[in-house]
């Protein structure tokens, strides 16, 4: 258990900078999720923390120690890999015990530690089996057992759930969270799945193109994205984007979208947006900020394209002013594909994005 | 329905297979026929292919010959130690080729393979003088050293493929578990590559077992000869009356190689073709 500090961390492969200027303070026992599309540098960052990748620039501290030049074994970390990386020629007990052999423990102590870990993960019955005789979920548990048995300062998870089917993934998500509650340890978890990031993290670190786009609690990054990338990446279905201009209409502000329709901007945003009058901007609205109804005094009619019933809700896809968009609808009131329906807009959830640098204008 | 062309192609394939099999099996069955004959029946030649009074006496006589057993032992020792040496020397090179990314890796791999193309005959005279200079003529150590060198190129390639098959992530996991490079190699990589290493060992042994030229040139004392050289003694003194013994000795000589290949053919073929197809 220790805090982890990444100070201006960078990694270059030849002339290609895979990761740059990573500044991140991870508190003791915090659960941090690095999330981003493939190639964004999240795994490289994790591998630098693990010591499997050299650090080209910056400083990495675990606890009070600068670990830049320490080997993985000297950093007191444990890692769970995407493909589990269980030693196929050892049984489960030997796999879990492998990391303890260097610690001057007696046989009895090692056995007790292995049993403890196995009990915690409910894999006692599997201790004599070889990895190939285990299911994906069981392998994942053994990999976690191998990590926790050493009681390391930091747990690292490199996309550990991506090889599991959807049901098992949801189950393991809960188990990892529960494990973190029972054995509080600083945890850094890498995933490309924003649902995993949102559901597991104390704080989410959204990465893109080798840099951090935003760090915040799951609800922070969802409700107040700092950039268009974050707004688009976090949340499913994705946020809707409409290009247009910010204009004054009497005393009020409106956002005029491509087809000439003007959407009213809440008055509270007036001062924040005043500098951006007349500029080309992008309006961002999450699907839940729209609704299929004519209840509000401002509606736009659209033709629905595709309807996706999910049971708990139905996602309705349509085009508005040349932009593909979606809205969540109650399953019993969902339209059919091809129907023309009225859309209401709740503009209190709006985001304005500067298309030049992709930043969300703060309000 | 198989098309007419398909049937023809199948017939042609089987015909070719039968021809090739016959090419190898006819001499072998001829050898079996001779080895089972009494000295008198040898004179019938091909006219009596299946002996009227088949006998195993010839094998007994050859195996009771202390000299013959000594030749077998020499052959086993030379081919076994030569193969083991090849695997031990090739392993670090193969590991480096498999795991480290360095400039000229591909070129060096090809260069090593190119050495394999050089016929032993071409280098025999310089090799003889060189071994003489080292004082290794007339010694088993000298022969084993040459076997090791001859076996190296193919062994490096085979072992590289075997190491390639061990996922790097397992070595990374061991590094995180606190193990250094060498310990990881010993505890993780080596055991997991052992099927490939065993195949390389057996293949080298089979190749060394049938080596004739090297021990023939290097060793002149009868007591040091492996069976492949000594068998020429039986042939060299051939008269009609010892042909049956020569045949029995030949069969005994090739039997270990054939048995080893039959028992381990799946492992050997998979080692030779590993990496050739994705599976």
Helices and strands, with pairings:
The complex is a heterodimer of chains A (363) and B (279).
Chain A: E1 4-13, E2 16-26, E3 31-35, H1 42-50, E4 57-62, E5 65-66, E6 77-80, H2 92-97, H3 107-121, H4 136-148, E7 154-158, H5 166-182, E8 186-191, H6 194-200, E9 203-208, E10 211-216, H7 218-223, H8 228-233, E11 240-249, E12 252-257, E13 262-265, H9 270-273, E14 280-285, E15 290-292, E16 299-309, E17 314-320, E18 323-329, E19 340-345, E20 351-353
Helix pairs in contact in A: 3-4
Chain B: H1 4-35, H2 57-64, H3 66-99, H4 105-117, H5 120-134, H6 140-164, H7 168-176, H8 181-209, H9 213-218, H10 227-236, H11 243-273
Helix pairs in contact in B: 1-11, 2-11, 3-6, 3-8, 4-6, 6-8, 7-8, 8-11, 10-11
Key traits:
heterodimer, A: 363 residues, Rossmann fold, OB fold (Dihydrolipoamide Acetyltransferase, E2P), 6-stranded mixed β-sheet, 5-stranded antiparallel β-sheet, 20 strands, B: 279 residues, MetI-like fold, 2 domains, disordered C terminus, transport (chain B), transmembrane (chain B), cell membrane (chain B), ABC transporter permease (chain B), membrane (chain B)
């Amino acid at each position: 258990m220790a805090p982890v500090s990444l100070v201006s961390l960078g990694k270059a492969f030849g002339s290609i900078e895979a990761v740059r200027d990573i500044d991140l303070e991870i508190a003791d026992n915090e659960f941090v999720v690095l999330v981003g599309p493939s190639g964004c540098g999240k795994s490289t960052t994790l591998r630098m923390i693990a010591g499997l990748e050299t650090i080209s620039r910056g400083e990495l501290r675990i606890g009070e120690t600068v670990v830049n030049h320490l080997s993985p074994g000297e950093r007191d970390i444990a890692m769970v890999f995407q493909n589990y990386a269980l030693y196929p020629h050892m049984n489960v007990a030997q796999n879990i015990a492998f990391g303890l052999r260097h610690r001057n423990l007696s046989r009895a102590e090692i056995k007790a530690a292995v049993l403890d870990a196995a009990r915690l993960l409910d894999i006692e019955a599997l201790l004599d089996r070889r990895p190939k005789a285990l299911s994906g979920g069981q392998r994942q548990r053994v990999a976690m057992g191998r990590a926790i048995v050493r009681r390391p300062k930091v747990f690292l998870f490199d996309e550990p759930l991506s090889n599991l089917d959807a049901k098992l993934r949801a189950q393991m998500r809960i188990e990892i969270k529960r494990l973190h509650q029972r054995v509080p340890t600083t945890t850094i978890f890498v995933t490309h799945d924003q649902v995993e990031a949102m559901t597991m993290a104390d704080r989410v670190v959204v990465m893109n193109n080798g840099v951090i786009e935003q760090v915040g609690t799951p609800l922070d990054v969802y409700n107040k994205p700092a950039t268009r990338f974050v707004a688009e990446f976090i949340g499913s279905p994705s946020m809707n984007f409409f290009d247009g201009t910010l204009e004054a209409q009497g005393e009020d502000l409106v956002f005029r979208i491509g087809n000439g329709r003007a959407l009213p901007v809440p008055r509270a945003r007036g001062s924040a947006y005043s500098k951006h009058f007349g500029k080309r901007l992008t309006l961002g609205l999450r699907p839940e900020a729209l609704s299929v109804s004519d209840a509000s005094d401002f509606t736009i009619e659209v033709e629905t394209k595709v309807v996706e019933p999910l049971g708990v809700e139905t996602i309705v896809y349509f085009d508005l002013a040349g932009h593909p968009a979606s809205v969540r609808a109650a399953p019993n009131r969902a339209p059919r594909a091809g129907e023309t329906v009225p859309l209401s807009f709740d503009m209190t959830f709006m985001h304005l994005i500067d298309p030049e640098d992709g930043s969300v204008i703060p309000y | 329905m198989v098309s007419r062309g398909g049937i023809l192609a199948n017939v042609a394939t089987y015909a070719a297979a039968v021809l090739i099999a016959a090419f190898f099996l006819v001499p072998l069955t001829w050898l079996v026929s001779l080895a089972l004959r009494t000295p008198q029946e040898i004179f019938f030649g091909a006219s009596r292919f299946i002996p009227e009074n088949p006998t195993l006496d010839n094998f007994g006589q050859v195996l009771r010959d202390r000299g013959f057993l000594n030749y077998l032992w020499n052959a086993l020792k030379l081919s076994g130690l030569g193969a083991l040496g090849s695997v031990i020397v090739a392993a670090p090179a193969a590991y480096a080729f498999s795991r480290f990314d360095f400039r000229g890796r591909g070129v060096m791999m090809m260069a090593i393979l190119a050495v394999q193309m050089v016929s032993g005959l071409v280098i025999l005279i310089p090799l003889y003088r060189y071994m003489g200079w080292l004082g290794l003529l007339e010694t088993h150590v000298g022969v084993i050293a040459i076997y090791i060198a001859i076996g190296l190129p193919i062994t490096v390639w085979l072992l590289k493929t075997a190491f390639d098959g061990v996922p790097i992530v397992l070595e990374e996991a061991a590094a995180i578990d606190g193990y250094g490079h060498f310990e990881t190699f010993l505890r993780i990589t080596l055991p997991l590559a052992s099927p490939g290493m065993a195949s390389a060992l057996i293949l080298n042994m089979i190749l060394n077992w049938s080596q004739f030229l090297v021990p023939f040139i290097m060793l002149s004392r009868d007591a040091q000869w492996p069976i492949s050289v000594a068998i020429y003694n039986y042939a060299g003194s051939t008269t009609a009356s010892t042909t049956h013994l020569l045949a029995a000795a030949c069969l005994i000589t090739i039997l270990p190689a054939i048995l080893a290949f039959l028992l381990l053919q799946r492992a050997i073929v998979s080692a030779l073709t590993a990496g050739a197809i994705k599976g």
